[in-house]
Amino acid sequence: MKRKVFLFLPLIVLLVICIFLTMGLKQDPKKIASALIGKPVPEFFQADLLDNNRIISNKHLPKQPYLLNVWGSWCYYCQQEHPLLMELAEQRIPIVGLNYRDKKQGALEMLTKKGNPFALVIDDSRGELAMKLGVDGAPETYVIDENGVIRYRYSGAVDKTILQKEILPEFNKLRN
Predict the structure, then answer these.
(1) CB 113: neighbour CB atoms within 10 A?
(2) Maximum mean pLDDT: which of 3-17, 24-38, 161-175
(3) Is the distance from CB of 139 to CB of 162 less than 8 angstroms?
(4) Dihedral angle, C-alpha 139, 100, 120, 141, nearest 10 °
(5) What is the DSSP code (8-state) at residue 67?
(6) What CA–CA distance (Å, rounded) separates 108 from 41?
(7) Distance between CA atoms of 74 and 97, rounded to whole angstroms?
(8) Is the dihedral of CA 54, 95, 30, 133 positive or negative?
(9) Which burial class, exposed, middle or buried, applies to 168 when counting CB atoms under 10 A from its CB (0-12, 13-18, 19+)?
(10) What integer pLDDT is reported at residue 35 of this predicted model?
(11) Which of 16, 26, 81, 117 could be stapled to 89 by a disulfide with Cβ–Cβ 3.0 to 4.6 Å?
(12) Taken in order 166, 167, 173, 176, is the CA torsion positive or negative?
């Protein structure tokens, strides 16, 4: 009897592994919470994309709720969400851009052609700040409070539905 159980043990282990893998596949990767939720934006000193002679640090970040958008000119989805960011900027919602692993020339061309919705544009061509933030890839959008604390993270392209149902409600909680 014990021998028969021993023979089926590898099959049982395989079934358990398959169950865990199936459960993992059902999770939405866009809803993975950042380890930095509730913590301040990591300290950084990086070049301003628009002015190489200027170094941007935490002290330059807005002292009001704002969005931090991780983007790159090479990123198809970043280009798709760009008009929505322009609309937000027109509504006077402050957005800080984190230009992620991009060539400066490509980033500047995109901002020239499509417009610049950003109050600040951080040059993160090496991905240093993005790594500290735990960025999975571009685009990502963070909601940051007036004290520089990360309150929400959305990984992926933002469309009007996501903006209305997820990001703006989190942002508006901070403005009231």
Answers:
(1) 10
(2) 161-175
(3) no
(4) 20
(5) E
(6) 25
(7) 15
(8) positive
(9) middle
(10) 79
(11) 117
(12) negative
- pLDDT of amino acid 116: 98
Q: What is the C-alpha separation between 153 and 36, in angstroms, rounded?
A: 9
Q: What angle do CA 18, 19, 24 make, to 5 degrees?
A: 95
Greater model confidence, 51 or 12: 51
Query: What is the spatial distance between Cα 40 and Cα 5, in angstroms, rounded to a whole number?
Result: 53
Q: How far apart are CA 62 and CA 59, in angstroms?
A: 8
d(CA 164, CA 145): 18
Q: Rounded CA gap, 88 and 82, in Å?
A: 10
Helix or strand (DSSP H, E) at 18: helix 2-25
Cα 115–169–149 angle (5° rounding)?
Answer: 80
Pairing label, strands 95-100, 120-124: parallel
Query: Cβ neighbours of residue 139 under 8 Å, at least 6 residues apart?
Result: 69, 70, 71, 75, 77, 78, 81, 156, 157, 158
Give the type of residue at 45. Answer: F
Q: What's the rounded Cα separation, in Å, for the pair 69 and 100?
A: 10
Pull the structure tokens for residue 143: 């909601």
Using one digit for the tens of pLDDT, what is the confidence trace for 52-76?
899 999 999 999 999 999 999 999 9
For residues 107 and 144, give the distance between their C-alpha atoms in angstroms, rounded to a whole number. 23
